[in-house]
Amino acid sequence: MSRPGTDAQPLRVAIIGAGPTGFYATDQLFRQPDVVVDVDLYDRVPTPFGLVRAGVAPDHQKIKAVTAAFDKVASHPRFRFFGGVELGRHLSVDDLRAHYHMIIYTTGAQTDRRMGITGEDLQRSHAATEFVAWYNGHPDYRDLTFDLSQERAAVVGVGNVAADVARILSRTPEELATTDIADYALEALSASRIREVYVLGRRGPAQAAFTNPEVRELGELAGADVNARADEVELDELTRQALERAPDRGTQKKVEILNDYAHRTPTGKPKRLIMRFLVSPVELRDDGHGAVGGMRLVKNRLYATATGTLQPKATDQFEELPVGLVFRSVGYRGVPLPGVPFNDDWGVILNEKGRVLDPQTKHPLVGQYTAGWIKRGPTGVIGTNKPDAVETVTGMLEDLARDIHLRPADPSPDTVERVVRDRQPQYLSYQDWQRLDELETRRGKETGRPRVKFTRVKDMLAALGRA
Amino acid sequence: MNIASLLAKKGPKVITVQPEQTIRQALALLADHNIGALVVVDRDGGPVGILSERDVVRNAARDEAVFAKTVSALMTKDLILGVPQDDLESVGHTMTNRRIRHLPVVDQRRLVGIISIGDVVKAQRDLYRGEVETLQFELTEEHGKPATR
């Protein structure tokens, strides 16, 4: 049989995970002038866009606007979307191998890293990602509850997710009401009694991962005064030397902003947001009823590793932080997919530059690829997944040129659609999604919001007249 | 960003050589795997040195008998080791300044990977590209409709 990639025999590709990376990979495949490609993009949830919909904060609509580029990709005549179809539940890897020449896994990092401290599993101790998915209306997380009757909360971590959580906790109901935050979250956060939010970084301000726009935003909240401690934002000797050796405008600016926060006097806003550095939680205290009643912190100092990275080392100074609610945001990890080799060391699919490897031979598995966070771990911004997806697609095209691909028994697009319909009759197509998008946006217009999300699968189906 | 994400997509194999192996054997490994350096490990798998193509070339230029020598005679023993949590930025800086082209990475003394200066440069480039991509999009959004091409 001739090599796939022609009009008569298009290269059939299944992509698992309709987040940004899934769309970037699709886009890159459609840009090939000499290869005719069909892409079927699958997602576990009925709606596309992954973390752009369920991760990016509702008050960051500008970042969410990247979906306009994904819509354009989806308008390609050889694109299909299957929402609400899960690998391992509705389809297996063997099913995919029976219908596609190549498969790309782009499922992201679905779980959080744990702190590994006593009390981590107490009530009112949560993964920040769960809170994020909750306020963004993710169907799997919408029924979680968070005790917002507490007055003090701590967010462990100083990445952009930590900044998002701290900001959402500190926003006024009026600020939140102009976003597309889930209705139930808006209601719960409007009744929140939280008045102090601590953001805890284990290293210094210069090593914090959040970006300058996000740090600056924390200083511009309508209902919260931001604060930091002068002794913690002042640069230590090692950091000062490192910045002298390799001056970095962005880092210097970040330190300046945080120094400004340390010298601000509270203006009497109802809430306070306190940025702490060089501290690590060592224990969450039980309040006597199985819930968080406080946090024990250790003070850190920095030391340089052999490569010059500044890392925290615990001192013998401790302090108690009287918080009743804790969100950990100390990193993310990929979740293994049924039937796909996993690299436990890094929490990613076992791969070399996007080619999935056989765990025994360490050689690439024919026709299986990966991209995005499940390939390299959770790093960078949304756009970082574009060069990453390009690397994977480049490998796929090299393999195709060497005639290395799966030999599906039945590559017909109609057959696989029948199989999907048979296993998951309620799957959503891209047209279905566009209809939902229109309805959500219309509901938003009525209340002056970007959109009002459907957060239950059955509500989505009902809105489409399919319940 | 730390260097674990560079190792994550490099596969699990690190090509190693033992100190008592010959340079001839080491060269075969370099050629077979199309790489520029080998991590030299002791019997327990702990890294004790690194042997680069440069080490071999320099010696071969003045010593015809180099191929029969042992790896331990030519390897660089003054090893700088990375850990997965090292920042990409400081690793890049250290490798550039100290002219290190390959950095073995250990986790609790266990060799978990090796990264080349090429890996570092590519990761930095991808980070910048990603940021530019995202910023460009936000900027075009801010001024109305997204740019179309």
Would you write up a description of this structure?
The complex is a heterodimer of chains A (467) and B (149). Chain A is an alpha/beta fold and 467 residues long. Chain A folds into two domains: 195 residues, Rossmann fold, CATH 3.40.50.720; 219 residues, FAD/NAD(P)-binding domain, CATH 3.50.50. Chain A is built from 18 helices and 20 strands. In chain A, the strands form five sheets. A seven-stranded mixed beta sheet of chain A has the order 3-2-1-4-20-19-18, sandwiched between helices. A six-stranded parallel beta sheet of chain A has the order 6-14-7-8-10-9. Chain A has a three-stranded antiparallel beta sheet with strand order 11-12-13, with no helix packed on it. The radius of gyration of chain A is 24 Å and the shape is globular. The model of chain A has no long low-confidence stretch (mean pLDDT 96). Chain B is of the alpha+beta class and 149 residues long. Chain B has a single domain, classed as CBS-domain. Chain B contains six helices and five strands; from the N terminus they run αβαββαααββα. In chain B, strands 1-2-3 form a three-stranded mixed beta sheet. A two-stranded antiparallel sheet of chain B has the order 4-5. In chain B, α5 packs across α6. The longest helix of chain B has 26 residues. The radius of gyration of chain B is 20 Å and the shape is elongated. Classes of the chains: A alpha/beta (467), B alpha+beta (149).
